[in-house]
Amino acid sequence: MKELTPKKIVDELNRYIIGQEKAKKAVAVALRNRYRRSLLPADLIDEFTPKNIILVGPTGVGKTEIARRMAKLIRAPFIKVEATKFTEVGYVGRDVESMVRDLVNTSIRNVQQEKMKEVYSEAEKNVNKIIVDILVPSKKIKETLKTPFDLFMKPNQPATTTPVELDSEKEQSKKEKREALSKELEAGLLEDRIIEIEVDDDGSKTIGVMQGMNSDSMSFNMNDIFGDILPQKKKKKNVSIADARRILINQEAQKLIDMDQVQEIGIREAEQNGIIFIDEIDKIIGNGNNQGPDVSREGVQRDILPIVEGSTVNTKYGPVKTDYILFIGAGAFHVSKIADMIPELQGRFPISVQLESLTEADFNEILTQTENSVIKQYQELIRTEAVNLIFEEDAIKHIAKIAFLQNEEEENIGARRLHTVMEKLLEEISFYASDYEQEEFIINKDYVERIFNIADKRDNYQKYLL
Hints:
InterPro entries: AAA+_ATPase, ATP-dep_Clp_protease_ClpX, ATPase_AAA_core, Clp_ATPase_C, HslU, P-loop_NTPase
Family: Belongs to the ClpX chaperone family. HslU subfamily.
Structural class: alpha/beta
Number of strands: 15
Protein name: ATP-dependent protease ATPase subunit HslU
Radius of gyration: 31 Å
Strand content: 5-15%
CATH class of the largest domain: Alpha Beta
Region (Disordered): 154-178
Domain Clp ATPase C-terminal: 358-452
Largest sheet: 5 strands, parallel
């Protein structure tokens, strides 16, 4: 984080998101302030709380993508929730505290994955030994001992077990075979071979109890309660060695990490660096009526308020403070406005940023300059059929124009319109790609116009214009 200055954060976001400079700067400053807070004297750290943000703009202009990319950039725990799921007509829906529990679960899972990466090499060595034992079982040596039953009932009788003479040649041959298999495993020569392994049976481990509308806080894990009293159930499964390695490495890595430490770090990360993105926050704002759904919406605002303001939420891992979690709200605000929120909640979102609708030029940049552009995605997808898609520059400009016009004429869904346009454009190509003999398929402006019949549509529109 020390190297991520606000300018560098914006530069990183520019790789995936076109435009919306004001929103990028707002979140970049919010992230940098977190780092600055960590450098404050101990007596001042608790005094500094995040300045929550509301992003205002139509769908598909990058609100969610900005929040998601910035969280990924700093590897912070991040969840997205829909505000509408907390309310239904006439009554409050899902428990609003569930967003904090989801954040903690995500944080702990992230820490667990990082810790498992640290012990991956050791886990892989253990798994190779396990696979070799499955392929060439080691012979157990029986000892000449009396059983407890024999010692009690027949103290003077000789042992009932028979000594097993080890055949040194067979043991040597088995040892050589195990060594040869170990080398073949390391070289990846046995990946398709089917073996039988024992895996953890996670079925029926979690029991959910319904109490009113809140099932999240009443869901618990039997192992969390009884610990090692209940043995872990196992089941046998026939899989390839490649799949067995993946499954067993995961199990072995989990055995090698300290889950108590993982949970402790996970909770701390959620509290200090967590980001909760509340989408469609405008949908919980009423129109001033004191009855019907508006009552429910205002009730949700009042339920969210203490969480955003700073409170303690009980989770199955322990209490979690929300004082330093960064909340980012987002909504179109077509009908309502931020001023319609209850005053207390407005005060907890001091920063609001207006995002602009996408222009034709923005669509063209999204198609050509972003690292995860739709064109690159479809090129890679069709390349799996040994067909190379080539888009001419004029064709890309025309695709951007079509997306822009469709947003103007129909519902404005922002950059998501590019997906609908590309699906229609490549529908026939995708269908017949596996049958093509040529290695290249060139998409030019004429092909785009033929698919969408732009000229015909323009002529039809003219007769409605005065």
